[in-house]
Design goal:
Blueprint: E1 4-13, H1 17-26, H2 31-34, E2 39-46, E3 55-62, E4 65-77, E5 82-90, E6 96-108, E7 111-122, H3 131-150
Antiparallel strand pairs: 1-7, 2-3, 3-4, 4-5, 5-6, 6-7
Length: about 150
């Protein structure tokens, strides 16, 4: 078993893919209104919303525990609807030396897919792969989808 890992999950959404991408690019601070049981807030610490180099901090509840993650926006590809976030502080770094989160929205005809990619390096071999965190992100995705379908 190695220290480096990559997990990927793709989920079909019925809501608009472009809208989903825009939420994470320009208005991540609105996610708490779309998934209030899981996300309590997202604050801008440096830069501007939707720009590479910006630093954002998430307050969230995972597995019944209050957590935080501070991330730097490493890349945004508007054409391919991808965003790359590198965790620079927070609960995930208690278990991982590095942690990068990728979000990709793909539209095929009338169908939209959200793909989450987690790339990480564990601090040591006894650390579990972040499968539960990936499941958490899928729940947030479903909450955002449900919110958008109500509008």
């Amino acid at each position: 078993m190695g220290l480096f890992g990559k997990l990927t999950a793709q989920i079909e959404i019925k809501s608009d893919g472009d809208l989903f991408h825009q939420v994470f690019r320009h208005t991540p601070h609105h996610v708490s209104g779309k998934s209030p049981d899981l996300v309590q807030g997202c604050d801008l610490h440096e830069g501007e919303w939707g720009t590479v180099g910006s630093i954002i901090c998430w307050s969230y509840t995972d597995d019944g525990k209050q957590k935080i993650e501070k991330e730097i926006v490493e890349a945004i590809d508007e054409e391919n609807k991808t965003i790359t976030l590198k965790v620079i502080e927070g609960n995930l770094l208690e278990h991982y030396k590095s942690f990068v989160i990728g979000i990709h929205v793909d539209t095929k005809g009338e169908t939209n897919f959200v793909t989450w990619v987690l790339e990480y390096e564990k601090l040591h071999e006894d650390i579990e792969d972040p499968i539960l965190f990936l499941a958490y992100l899928i729940k947030v995705t479903k909450d955002i989808e449900t919110h958008h379908l109500k509008i």
